[in-house]
Amino acid sequence: MSLLKTAGQIWSGLWKLMLLEQKVGWKNIVCLLTLCFIMGLGAGGILHLCLRALQCSHSVSLAISGSFTAVTGAALFLSKYLRCITLIFLISCGTQQGRNGLITAGTSVVLLKCAQNIFTNLQGLAESAVCYLEHMLPSIRGIMEMYREVIKWISEQALKIPKNIFVKLEDKFELNYRVEDEDFERNLSTVKHRLKSLGDNIKSSFDIIFLVWKNTLAIIGVLFILVATWFYIRRYLNKMKFENVFITNQFLKYDAAQKEKGKPHLLSLTQKERKYIIEFPSLWLTAREWKTMARFFTPIFINLCAWATNIMIDWALYIFISSIRNQLEILPEHLALKGEIQNPVKMSAQMFSYETHLYKRECIPRPTLSITEIWIPLVVIIAALMLVTLFSAKLTVLKVLVLASFYPDTESDRVQFLHQKLLQKRMSVNLENREKKLSTQANSVINWLPRFAHKIYSQFTLHYIL
Description:
Blueprint: H1 2-19, H2 26-53, H3 58-78, H4 80-92, H5 96-159, H6 182-238, E1 246-247, H7 249-260, E2 278-279, H8 287-330, E3 334-343, E4 348-357, H9 371-406, H10 408-465
Parallel strand pairs: 1-2
Antiparallel strand pairs: 3-4
């Protein structure tokens, strides 16, 4: 406990240094310089990653990011509000802006790689069909040659039939054949060339798109977070209702002061108010925070389903081509055909054989699976998204607390606004409950009066008769 207390005191002292506009004492100056240098180092690290994404050399990116770290550290030391913007920027990397950047990165990895792999597998399947047709031409010529030999043998056997005065055979039999495959070979060569050209063009396009997207993704993400941070601070300063649902220490002090003055106070909160008002610090999540986390996770879930769909399409095509490959490998590579022709005159037979191939080993398609290449970055992105989702509700509170510390006047106005808003809502609820209670009592009286009147009338009538 003493260690935690000491750590809390150190953190409280450092935080007070961050909020100081004027630096007093050399110890405070050194501590503040160290803090600003650490924050500048974080910003310089982000810049270094962006420069490396733009294919800058390691030495150049280190020199630029080092200079940026020094300049940023000095600027943070001199400007209190720049420290606020930097802290909000770093926290925003873990909230919606960081989530959107991670989703964009995951989408680029999955869509580009899966689309490229699907096209590669389809191209391999088409090239396999072209290769098979190419190797079928020798087989066609071979079987035509076998037919020629069979017919020639039949003519030779016919000449050996015994001659007589009624039958006369002349040896004028000629057999020629021609396989007209020039157009087929030309078309096949054209298809092969176009297929290769189309594949190279699409692959180069995918490579260029992936390279450009990868290089600009980091910079676009950082710029997007910077712009979103600026709008967030502006909305906080100009709109009292924006993210004004937190019970902070300033709110507790203000409510206690109102109680001491004898004015209406709020604490403790009712059960209904606890559903939409968040007390801080608290490790437990309120119903509002659970809803915030669910809304935060909704686009993540939608994109995860889209990623899974693309991966499943790629996997289904891989399974289809793999099944074709497995079925071809089960079949024998060569097929032998044998024929026998009987000679009834000489009581003999002639054997003819022909051997062809069902497929060629080099023509079997070899599919690839994109998940084997992208699973490492994809797992990292999904893990980061899950972590960001878990801390999304508390990081939003942290941003509000940072802004409240750097803008105490605005926070005081926001506390008064929230206090007055809750008082008015509670008074309206109490008034509504009182009206319901009075209405219930009035209804009971109205229901009771006829019975009372009937009872009085009955007694009066009985007394009059007697």
